[in-house]
Design goal:
- The complex is a heterodimer.
- By secondary structure, chain A is mainly α.
- Chain A is built from 18 helices and 14 strands.
- In chain A, 49% of the residues lie in helices and 11% in strands.
- In chain A, the strands form 6 sheets. A two-stranded antiparallel ribbon of chain A has the order 1-2. In chain A, strands 3-4 form a two-stranded antiparallel sheet. A two-stranded antiparallel ribbon of chain A has the order 5-6.
- Chain B has helices at residues 2-49, 69-125; strands at residues 56-60, 63-67.
- In chain B, 7% of the residues are buried.
- The chains are: A mainly alpha, B mainly alpha.
- Strand 6 (94-99) of chain A pairs antiparallel with strand 1 (56-60) of chain B.
- Chain B: This is Prefoldin subunit 6.
- Chain B: Keywords: Chaperone, Coiled coil.
- Chain B: One of its GO terms (cellular component) is cytoplasm.
Chain lengths: 502, 126
Amino acid sequence: MVNRCCIVGCNSATHNRPLKKNGLTCHCFPAWRRDHGDQVRKKVENDYESLQDRLRTLPDKLSYDIMVPFGPLAFMPGKLVHTNELTVLLGDNWFAKCSAKQADALVEHRKKHVKNTLDDLQKVMKNFQNRADFTDDLEKLTGDTGDFADIREEVINEEEVTKGKPRLALKPNSKPKQEYLLELEEDKEKKEGDEERTTGVLSEEELWARLDELERQEELQDERYRLDSTDTNGEDTTSSSEEEKEADGGSDVQVNGHQKENGWVPSSITSQMNGTNGSHPEDEEEEDCNEEAGNGLPTIYFSHTAEFKKVRINTGKNTTLKFSERNEQKAQAKRKKKSGKSNGHSPHESYKITSPADIYRVFVDLVNGEPIPRKSILKSRSRENSVCSDTSESSTADFEERRAAFGRSWSHDDATHSDTSDGITEEESPTGTSPRTNGRFEAFTGTVIEKDPLPCSIPHLTIAPPALPTIPERKLEEVGPEAPQEPPKRMSKFKATRLHQK
Amino acid sequence: MAEAIHKKLQSELEKYQQLQKDVSKSMSLRQKLEAQLTENNIVKEELALLDCQNTVYKLIGPVLVKQDLDEAKATVSKRLEYINGEIQRYETLLKEMERKSEQHREVLSSLQQEYQRAQGQAVGKV
């Protein structure tokens, strides 16, 4: 039975070419035809096998009595003679007379040829099959099925993503920071520089470098940290860093670095709600992993939700950034610890600390159940939005929001730090307390801190920052280990540190 | 204007179709030659298997004509060479036709664009 074309109206049995019939177009090789070649060759091989058998048995007798076909409908009895003489068609109208054995050899030769063709065909088929399989695999990989997942993080503010390293591709105009530029003229340049940051894995060393940068930034970007938002953790940091301007000019880079830290921190928090240890580099790595994982295929959209309070620590001179970065780490650790303890406010909210000022914002002492910002050692300008303790109502208001976002326990840490830093600055400029209140931080002076019994729980400084050259850092270090202690002890420690510094 | 373009388009289309047919014809001829090539190769090999004692016949029309084995071998070799030459010729011819058809295709597409533009203008005018 011959296979014919499946299309109704077309009776072709070949179809190895596009065929137009009766308005229909039959295209090459329906399924049955595809295997046809293979089947044909198999058939041919079988035929040759049976032929060989016949050839072997034929010379057994001198003549055979057979029924000879006589036309299409009749047979007649006859004899098969000369059983060993065969005329073989060699091909292309060539014949050869040979014996049965020779014919057998010829047949064998032909069989070999057919087999070779068959093998070649198989190879070709396998190749095509492999290609098809590969395409399927590729599709699976890139499709929504499979084990691969595409994790995407919508980054609205490029700054958030970038860390530490200047990214040439970033455009200065893409950042929402622009509005802040208006507020602080000095910050403009720096902000633009910030946007150039690139994302990178922040190693510990980089973190410290960033700290340096941030410190420089802080003085310049007091107002930024207030911004919020979702769209930019980075923005917050920049504003905070802006508030604390310093004469140093390298703040461009630092702002970004600061922001990036914040950007990393919130993302780390959002990604790890339950807090593994909050070491900053770990978070960064995790964030990196998150980001890196974005190349797969089923897409998981990941966004930073936490907005950190920015804490400003205004050293008034230098290395505020380091301070803040350490605080950030500490804050992170605390957050992780206290993720369950916060007031019901998500620990991630406003948690981003990208500048020392943020620390003041984040760490707020709780006095009698109310958050009181600690004394900030940051410059007054940077304290506008800070959570540093302040006698003014505005600062209290700020506290409220920050506290809401942050959580009391952290505020304690913050306060601790700020206290320490305030203590330091106080020593440096005992009269400067009031001016400092003008900044981001709700103006709070060291005096208050000293008197403040700090009944609030002692902030946990889970991160023991490495020794940094800056004074505030040192003080932090001192305070850090001491922080977890009871408030009354802390009081004494502050005093102790102050005395020590004196 | 549109009409003229339309006519030009039609003529170009016809030329292109003709060219396509030529291409396919040459293609099929070449395939036939390929088959003959394989066959003659087999014949050559099988002739090598035979010895002088076997008589070789060639079918010329309805007649089987006796041939010498060596002669047959030579004939087959010559035929093989001839077939190879033919295949080469067809190859070049095919390439040439392909190139020409490509040119025609481009002309056709540009004409088509022009025609559409003209039609658009005509519609606009109306």
